[in-house]
From TrEMBL:
Domain Pyridine nucleotide-disulphide oxidoreductase dimerisation: 397-501
Top-level lineage group: Bacteria
Domain FAD/NAD(P)-binding: residue ranges: 19-347
Enzyme Commission number(s): 1.16.1.1
Family: Belongs to the class-I pyridine nucleotide-disulfide oxidoreductase family.
Organism field: Oerskovia enterophila
Signal peptide: none
Keyword annotations of the record: FAD, Flavoprotein, NAD, Oxidoreductase
GO molecular function: mercury (II) reductase (NADP+) activity
InterPro entries per UniProt: Class-I_Pyr_Nuc-Dis_Oxidored (IPR050151), FAD/NAD-bd_sf (IPR036188), FAD/NAD-binding_dom (IPR023753), FAD/NAD-linked_Rdtase_dimer_sf (IPR016156), Pyr_nuc-diS_OxRdtase (IPR001100), Pyr_nucl-diS_OxRdtase_dimer (IPR004099)
Gene behind this protein: merA
Protein name per Swiss-Prot or TrEMBL: Mercuric reductase
Cofactor(s) this protein requires: FAD
Length: 510
């Protein structure tokens, strides 16, 4: 696709401001990129159209976990004999605490952090209009941006980093848009809990919000085309489905929604095809959680020869491919490589370090390690902080359902598809000595995927109450490529659930 015409007034105009680096997107990913990029003396601006702190702070990670934690805490208390626990949760205080967690959707604290770090904030929607040029409009994303007096033109001396994240997908199911469905934003910022909720989608958002709204008192039905958490190990999917049903969620698998109709008294009825034929379900509210796509549709990428609506392909140093000059970088969801905030922040740190070393005041060896001009073709050292190595084999994720699902690295199926000689070993967490201290009837499973040639772990999954807290040990084992024979000498404390590491290695044959 061709770039913008050289006669376009936005490429000919004198920039209103010039910075060394411009970051488009002020979420946690962009904040990390900006912070690291500024550490070698480069001037950095962050362009943000909404709240500084982004999706995670106000509509995703933080509010969703605030909604999920009360139910998990109550379930944990009920599992210990002798602890008196209230049989119900009070939505009012839960929503009030959620409001506190998101600072009542006020980003002044985040803005203060930018100011303290010496990073300039430019409010508005940032669009690429040419090499190293970013037009910032105060208009909303759907407004006409050709009114040049209402815009500002920023120029980057060295680099532009795109960290615009992703946007939810609304299926083109007949009638669905007319029912005014929720996305994850409306779900996590809810003020009035609906009497009933129909969730379309069995991914992370779908299963977490099905859990949270059941806790809040909604009657929840979840419709999923395939198994829940389809990219997880099958035993994790089965455990989450069983957990949802145990708390009262009507889980219907193998279901494709074919149509939607608004009801006279509010809410909607969804028609679907399922394993037993056609059916329907009604709810006071519908939540669509069928996935997200990289946010490039309103980014102006066509001005630099890229196709809008698709992820920005990057190399391991997060430089965007297909753009000449080595000035355009991207990190987080917009690349299509990651789908979690923590992994995106990791990419932000990598790209910030790369930009700082390439264009800032650093020692020559650091510049070379970051692929600075004159060292083209030099690959960073393995596990260098100038390369997003973890994107390939050490991505981590936690799903805060009951039970929790925590995973890192490759599933058994992914490892086999990659051609690795692997063996999966599992162990029931309830059989570990420490489990009985945590909960009566503790249930869960731990599994490691071992590369049998190198004798190292390449994947791990933990399913059970508070399983998330067990994940980092597995992450270190995978990133460090710790041989099993050495891991055998990492003695777990007794009595803790982490003693499962000993049992896994014994099961493997050590």
């Amino acid at each position: 696709m061709g770039g913008m015409s050289s006669s376009d007034p936005r490429t000919q105009a004198t920039p209103d401001e010039t910075f060394d680096v411009i970051v488009i997107g002020g979420g946690p990913v962009g904040e990390n990129a900006a912070d690291r990029a500024s550490r070698t003396g480069l001037s950095v601006a962050v362009v943000e159209a909404e709240l500084v702190g982004g999706e995670c702070s106000y509509w995703a990670c933080m509010p969703s976990k605030a909604l999920l934690r009360p139910g998990a805490a109550l379930a944990a208390a009920r599992a210990v004999p002798g602890v008196e626990a209230s049989p119900t949760l009070d939505p009012g205080p839960i929503l009030a605490r959620r409001d506190e967690m998101v600072s009542h959707w006020d980003d002044s604290g985040q803005v203060q952090w930018l100011d303290g770090a010496g990073i300039s904030l430019v409010r508005g929607l940032g669009r690429l209009v040419g090499p190293r040029l970013v037009e910032v409009s105060p208009e909303d994303p759907d407004a006409d941006v050709d009114d040049l007096p209402a815009t500002r033109l920023l120029a980057a001396r060295h680099a532009v980093i795109v960290a615009t994240g992703s946007v939810p997908v609304l299926p083109d199911t007949p009638g669905l848009a007319e029912t005014d469905p929720w996305s994850s934003r409306e779900a996590t910022s809810v003020q009035d809990v609906p009497a009933s909720l129909v969730v379309i989608g069995g991914g992370v958002v779908g299963v977490e919000m099905a859990t949270a709204f059941t806790d809040l008192g909604s009657k929840v039905t979840l419709l999923s085309r395939g198994r829940l958490l389809g990219r997880s190990e099958p035993f994790a999917s089965e455990a989450v489905a069983a957990g949802l049903r145990a708390i009262g969620v009507d889980v219907r698998l193998g279901v494709s929604v074919t149509g939607a109709t608004s009801l006279p008294d509010g809410g909607a009825r969804l028609a679907y095809d399922g394993p037993q034929g056609k059916g329907s379900v009604a709810g006071a509210q519908v939540l669509v959680a069928t996935g997200r796509v990289p946010r490039t549709g309103d980014l102006g990428v066509e001005a630099v020869g890229l196709e809008p609506g698709k992820g920005l392909a990057v190399d391991d140093q997060l430089e965007v491919q297909g753009v000449e000059g080595g000035w355009l970088f991207a990190c987080g969801d917009v690349t299509g490589r990651v789908a979690t905030t923590h992994q995106g922040k990791y990419e932000g740190r990598v790209v910030g370090d790369v930009v700082a070393a390439r264009f800032g005041k650093v020692r020559p060896e650091e510049a070379r390690a970051a692929g600075a001009s004159g060292s083209a073709g030099e690959a960073p050292e393995p596990w260098s902080r100038y390369a997003a190595t973890a994107d390939h084999g050490a991505k981590t994720q936690v799903v805060f359902t009951r039970p929790e699902v925590a995973s890192v690295g490759l599933t058994e199926a992914e490892a086999k598809k990659a051609g690795l000689p692997v063996r999966a070993v599992s162990y029931k967490l309830g059989s570990v000595s420490g489990a009985v201290l945590v909960a009566e009837g503790y249930e869960g499973t731990a599994q490691i995927v071992v590369d049998t040639e190198r004798q190292v772990i390449v994947g791990a999954t933990f399913v059970g109450p508070d399983a998330a807290e067990m994940l980092h040990a597995a992450t270190i084992a995978i990133v460090g490529q710790v041989p099993l024979a050495r891991l055998w000498h990492a003695v777990p404390a007794y009595p803790t659930i982490s003693e499962v590491w000993l049992r896994l290695l014994e099961t493997y044959g050590l």
